[in-house]
Amino acid sequence: MGAQLRVYKRRIQAVTATKKITKAMEMIAASRIVKAQRKVAASMPYATELTRAVTAVATGSNTSHPLTTEIETPTRAAVLLLTSDRGLAGGYSSNAIKAAERLRERLAAEGKEVDTYIVGRKGLAYYGFRERKVTESWTGFTDSPDYSDAKRIAGPLIEAIQKDTAEGGVDELHIVFTQFVSMMTQNAVDDRMLPLSLDEIAEESSTRKDEILPLFDFEPSAEDVLDALLPRYVESRIYNALLQAAASEHAARRRAMKSATDNAGDLIKSLSRLANAARQAEITQEISEIVGGASALSDASAGSDK
Fold this sequence. Notes:
The chain is of the alpha/beta class. Helix content is about 65%, strand content about 10%. The protein has helices spanning about 1-60, 90-110, 120-130, 145-160, 200-205, 220-305; strands at about 75-80, 115-120, 135-140, 170-180, 185-195. The chain has a 5-stranded mixed beta sheet, sandwiched between helices. Helix 1 packs antiparallel against helix 6 and helix 4 (about 145-160) crosses helix 6. The longest helix has about 80 residues, at about 220-305.
């Protein structure tokens, strides 16, 4: 019985140590969520004004630009998938991967080939295990991305969409990331970044009653302005997605670590009850042995007196 009690005590010590680690990780993730939310809020004014500028050029000119012109029969699309570099975040990466798989199936059903670009080791490991081709990947910054990271990612994607499909280019650019809604809600979404949908832009502009886009004269030309603005537009969209994904990752990790901490606490209580029961059983057995020994000595002493 003593050996069983020692086993329970060792398990309680191990679970207690694990609980301390998960509690610390929960607190770290909670502190990083606030920083990530601030970065998301700080990036919004630039992204909003840049979108308005691109909208003005796209709707205020008759220029046919490859980044704003819909292809009649698109045959190839690029999908950028944002996952995490580290685990212990619940279903964060798996939900994003599932959304990318659904998008891939939808594009394949439309007759389009898909080139996959991946951010994060989890997504890269998923595709590597299944021996699927990955056009390009980036790792090492998912929990705290910078604008320079978004710029590195945007470069190959812009180059791909500017090329002809016969030369390895693509007709569309999609992004799959986890949208941060609140501390408890994060949704894996897919969005088409390029080419810009002028119908959606017109509809969005019409809903803003206080905003009237003026007519512009573009120097040196509207096409040159689009050449300069649209790469910045893609970079800002990717940067905003990276920031939202980082906030979502921290929120998912905080939630997962809180659940692990609570489960560790419940397990410690259960093991403590089992240890107490084992100790009580051991004490009862010892008392029984003492009483039995005393009774045997008493009987032996009474027999010798006779």
